[in-house]
């Protein structure tokens, strides 16, 4: 049996995935099909809870918050926050501002609480 040794651990990882016949390596990370047109990702058990927590964090901050600040303040994961912000943006309650870091800000509709 031949052992592959490399100073670069990524190249070792990537080459180990070429033995798909054995069901190892990249076979474990098979590509998923993209969602159908118009389908949304789901937040998890309760998307309204994530939206409420993000809104509460933005109200408490009295100003824009980066995704990391929201993550720290709510305990949510970045994907949950991104999905919640997308829902809030669709409802007209929040907007995302570009800058050195993207920040989420409440709109005039989101400030009435």
From TrEMBL:
Recorded protein name is FtsK gamma domain-containing protein
Write out the ranges of the annotated region (Disordered): 1-50
Q: Where is the composition biased (Basic and acidic residues)?
A: 30-40
Superkingdom of origin organism: Bacteria
